[in-house]
Design brief:
Layout lengths: L1 H27 L8 H13 L3 H20 L5 H17 L10 H21 L7 H12 L3 H19 L2 H23 L4 E7 L3 H12 L4 E6 L6 E10 L3 H11 L4 E7 L15
Antiparallel strand pairs: 1-3, 1-4, 2-3
Helix pairs in contact: 1-4, 1-5, 2-3, 2-7, 3-4, 3-6, 5-8, 6-7, 7-8, 9-10
Main location: membrane
Keywords: Cell membrane, Membrane, Transmembrane, Transmembrane helix
Membrane topology: Multi-pass membrane protein
């Protein structure tokens, strides 16, 4: 079973790396859009010195990988090395064969960011990585205490700023757009498009509301024990996770029973378990 899962992971790391390389080759690199990371830095170096983006990326990543293994241990394992080589060679191998689909920098930013983010999302979902600045960010976190997220933002900002200096400020702005879209695409691949809503309901008629939700919506309800901060009265707080399309139904049920009920509706990024994403634990 473990071997089957490993093969499955490497398959999607391969597909994801190829898609990422395609996004760079068809959209970002030919339009000088250096959207952060090692690939962005390699794009700048390519236009300065004419060196192939993939080989420059490999030359930067290998030392980072060695330092990462030395300082952080074996977690920078074979999947990272596999992703580094696949993306680096993929960029240079695909470059002669894939067409440049647009020379409009805005379209290139949108589609390049989306395609690259799709590929990276598949890689990350399969517990892989393509190396790059996430290695640097983890090293910075170890030695300075700065969070990985902040470190990544700082590094990407520096790469985009360098692109702005080498090319022009407008290109840097497009690179920022591409970076944002890449991040959003990664989130969508990892978390999915099925946005759920978390609802908290506080009412004097919580038992009647609970029964109606169970009977009419066929959704589970969790009863939390709460206490009013002003009245100091004990109350049941109903927690119910629903789909976006069910929000109106739930509000109607609550309103028909208790017009004075206090309802909080929040966005939930991912729900695992019965009635929602039941297969997610197998990923």
């Amino acid at each position: 079973m473990m071997r089957k899962q490993t093969i499955y992971d490497y398959f999607w790391i391969t597909i994801g790396s190829i898609i990422t390389a395609a996004g760079l080759v068809m959209f970002l690199i030919p339009n000088k859009i250096a959207a952060g990371g090692v690939s962005g830095l390699s794009t700048v170096i390519y236009y300065l010195f004419g060196l192939p983006v993939g080989m420059v990326s490999l030359a930067i990543n290998i030392p980072l990988f060695i330092i990462g293994v030395k300082e952080m241990g074996a977690k920078f394992g074979i999947r990272t090395l596999y992703g580094i080589f696949l993306l680096s060679f993929g960029i240079d191998l695909l470059n002669p064969y894939l067409p440049v689909l647009t020379h409009d920098p805005l379209l290139a930013s949108i589609y390049g960011g989306g395609v690259s983010g799709l590929g990276l999302g598949l890689v990350f979902r399969s517990k892989g990585t393509t190396g790059g600045t996430d290695l640097v960010a983890q090293l910075i976190n170890k030695f300075t205490g700065i969070s990985v997220g902040k470190s990544l933002m700082i590094i990407d900002f520096c790469v985009i700023a360098l692109a702005g200096i080498v090319f022009n400020a407008e290109i840097a702005l497009y690179a920022f757009i591409a970076m944002m879209i890449t991040g959003k695409a990664i989130d969508i691949v990892q978390e999915g498009l099925k946005i759920s809503k978390g609802t908290f309901i506080i009412s004097d008629y919580s038992e009647e509301i609970r029964k109606n939700i169970l009977e009419k919506m066929d959704r589970g309800v969790t009863i939390l024990k709460g206490k009013g901060g002003f009245t100091e009265h004990n109350k049941d707080v109903l927690l119910c996770i629903i789909s976006r399309s069910e929000v109106s139904d739930l509000k109607r049920i609550v309103h028909n029973i208790d017009e004075n009920a206090f309802v909080i509706i929040t966005e939930v990024h991912e729900v695992l378990g019965e009635g929602f994403n039941e297969n997610a634990f197998k990923d």
